[in-house]
Amino acid sequence: MPAAGVDDVEAAVDRARAAQPGWADRSVGERAAVLDRVADLALDRRGALADAVQAETGKEREGAYQEVWGVAANADYYAERAPGLLGATRRRGRSRSPRARPNTVTPWAWSGW
């Protein structure tokens, strides 16, 4: 996988910020379908993803596959539960809506979470 420089990361963050309003406008079902696709792609490309995990972390093959399977399992879990978790319900005067989420990428972060 190619290394990214500061400019690459800043451009990716800018694209993510620009995409957020469109993501927020999607229905829960549409967002769940995207998560379904993430799960499918992770499993379809598990070999290449495990290669990347090994190259970046030095993990043994089994550990690399566990990370890939974890990504697929988490995506599948939330895709199945999204309607119940994100339905248009109000609780205590609050409504649920997608928001931009801060993220930290660290060398010890487990990719499945």
Helix/strand/pairing class, anyone? mainly alpha
Instruction: Give the distance, in angstroms, between the N- and C-terminal Cα atoms.
Output: 21 Å
- Estimate percent helicity: 55-70%
Form type? globular
Rg (C-alpha, Å):
16 Å
Taking the sheet with the most strands, its summary is: 2 strands, antiparallel
SSE ordering: HHHHEE
Counted by DSSP, the helix tally is 4
In what order do the strands lie side by side in the largest sheet? 1-2
User: Any low-confidence stretches, pLDDT <50, length ≥5?
Assistant: none
Count of DSSP strands: 2
**How confident overall, as mean pLDDT?**
84
The oligomeric status of these chains comes to single chain
Instruction: Work out the strand percent.
Output: under 5%
Topology of this structure?
Layout: H1 6-25, H2 28-44, H3 46-57, H4 61-86, E1 90-91, E2 94-95
Antiparallel strand pairs: 1-2
What would your notes on this structure say?
The structure is a single chain. The chain is mostly helical and 113 residues long. It has a domain at 20-85. 66% of the residues lie in helices and 4% in strands. It has 4 helices and 2 strands; from the N terminus they run H-H-H-H-E-E. A two-stranded antiparallel sheet has the order 1-2. The protein is globular and about 50 Å long. The chain starts with 5 loop residues before the first helix and ends in an 18-residue tail after the last strand. The model has no long low-confidence stretch (mean pLDDT 84).
